[in-house]
Design a protein that fits this description.
Strand content: under 5%
Number of strands: 0
Number of domains: 1
Order of helices and strands: HHH
Helix content: over 70%
Distance between the termini: 48 Å
Structural class: mainly alpha
Length: about 90
Amino acid sequence: MSLIWLLAGWGTLIVKLLALLDVLGRQPEAFPYLDRLTKPAWIAITAISCVSHFIFGAFGVFGLVGLVACSVYLVDIRPKIIELNKNGR
């Protein structure tokens, strides 16, 4: 059973790191077009999520909130930014 929790913890860390790396690689000009948070805000959210993963663990309150925040970025914001880049903005 502990192997499953270990793998799940590593999986959540991978999701958080992917979100952070993706935010860092995006152009800051794309974020205002979405009427959402700015690039520095998303960098702060994803970076704090990664740091809190190590401090508080993957399945504590902060770990789960960070996972949700990073998942929102990956599922909602990232596809919209990709679509904006395809449309030439």
